[in-house]
Specification:
This protein has a 16-stranded antiparallel barrel. The protein has a two-stranded antiparallel ribbon with strand order 10-11. It has a single domain (about 5-385), classed as Beta Barrel (Porin). With about 375 residues, it is mainly beta. It has one helix and 18 strands.
Length: about 375
């Protein structure tokens, strides 16, 4: 359910324009529900969102989104399976979020200011972004620039609250090559600093517990992970769309390269075919492949490192270490189908199914049991006036 706390804020902002010009300016509303399920008592997320877009004038637009996620299940801790330390830990949380954006167009230029806020029991995030676009070449070429800032607070068990700041800048270009082909490319540079650990991930180490001089027993201890306290990343994304008139179908092909100073280099390739069955129905099968190498500091256990007793409150100083499977060498595939049906000139319905599978590759991998397989189902309704 959408938080009742957020509803009056949105309605108060919207009512002056909705009431005065509802019959003159367009409005769009969209409600969606999604289930992400890894099965086997692993992570399950049920998400609800409600978003809208309202033209305030011929040049200005207001859009908003309300979000509610319910998370349950268990996730790998970083400890090895089959040992004395638990391989997974139970999670249960609810996230609520609100986003509001005001856009303004002036001729061939567009500017948008966006504010966002989300809250979980152990994580708070506030954000601001500014996006600018300008058309050239009779509208066939569009340049885009943007800046995004996130101010996060992480509540860490048994420690004081930790801070995290993230900055992103991007530049992109979209080019119409002909009546049926569009290409685009964009580059994002990002930097995060502060507490970048996952407070629920640990690393285990085999140790000897001394009972008396000369007498000890072997035990397995766990320690908090210790990632660097900063991360810089670069992301290059390219996309091409082409419409095949003879069969009323559109092919979308996208490629993404990402690199960061964790030492992770990843590649993503995606293809989607949008087939117009008739004037009301579109089906779109898609496939996505993702691959990455491991972070420089990924380890299965601290047995691999020659260090003294790890800090109880890791602050990012070296040596760094993490057993989080998401930082290992891995690949993932997604395959699915989207369906869009236009009920009438105001109402449309959409649905999607996606099967996601991740596995470790190479030598720098987590245990096989850590990598998830998930199914995602979603349905939404769009209403336009």
């Amino acid at each position: 359910m959408i938080s009742n706390y957020h509803r009056p804020i949105i309605l108060t902002c919207l009512l002056p324009w909705v009431n005065s010009r509802a019959n003159e300016l367009s409005q769009e509303y969209d409600y969606g529900f999604q289930i992400y399920d890894e099965g086997n008592e692993r992570i399950r997320v049920e998400a609800n969102y409600f978003r809208g877009k309202i033209d305030l004038s011929d040049e200005s637009t207001f859009r908003f989104q309300l979000l509610n996620d319910a998370i349950t299940g268990s996730s790998p801790t970083g400890a090895l399976p089959g040992g004395s330390q638990p391989f997974t830990s139970d999670l249960e949380d609810v996230r609520t979020g609100i986003l509001a954006a005001l856009g303004h167009s002036l001729g061939d230029q567009r500017l948008e200011l966006e504010l966002s806020k989300s809250e979980e029991s152990d994580y708070y995030s506030s954000g601001i972004s500014i996006n600018y676009e300008k058309d050239y070449n009779l509208g066939n070429t569009t340049l885009a620039f943007g800046f995004n800032y996130l101010d996060d607070i992480v509540k860490v068990p048994l420690l004081k609250d930790q801070e995290k700041d993230s900055y992103d800048i991007f530049a992109g270009i979209t080019q119409i090559l002909g009546k049926n082909t569009i290409i685009s490319a964009d580059l994002t540079l990002g930097h995060s600093e502060g507490y970048l650990n996952d407070p629920y991930k640990v690393v285990q180490r085999n140790e000897d517990f001394v009972i008396a001089p000369g007498i000890s027993i072997p035990i397995v201890s766990i320690y908090r992970e210790n990632r660097p306290d900063s991360r810089t990343r670069q992301v290059l994304h390219q996309q091409t769309k082409h419409f095949f008139e003879s069969i009323n179908g559109t092919l979308k092909a996208a490629f993404r390269l990402s690199h960061d100073d964790y030492g992770i280099f990843s590649q993503t390739a995606e293809m989607e075919w949008r087939q117009e069955v008739n004037e009301d129905l579109i089906i779109a099968p898609f496939y996505r492949f993702y691959n990455q190498n491991s972070a420089d500091f990924f380890v299965r256990t601290l047995n691999e490192l020659n260090i003294d007793t790890p800090a109880d409150e890791p602050n990012g100083d070296g040596p760094n270490y993490s057993a989080d499977y998401r930082l290992s060498s891995l690949n993932a595939t997604s395959i699915g189908l989207k369906i869009h049906y236009q009920v009438n000139d105001k109402l449309s319905l959409s649905g999607a199914y996606e099967h996601y599978a991740m596995k470790g590759v190479g030598s720098e991998t987590a245990p096989t049991e850590a990598y998830p397989t998930a199914n995602t189902f979603s349905i939404s309704a769009q209403l336009k006036f």
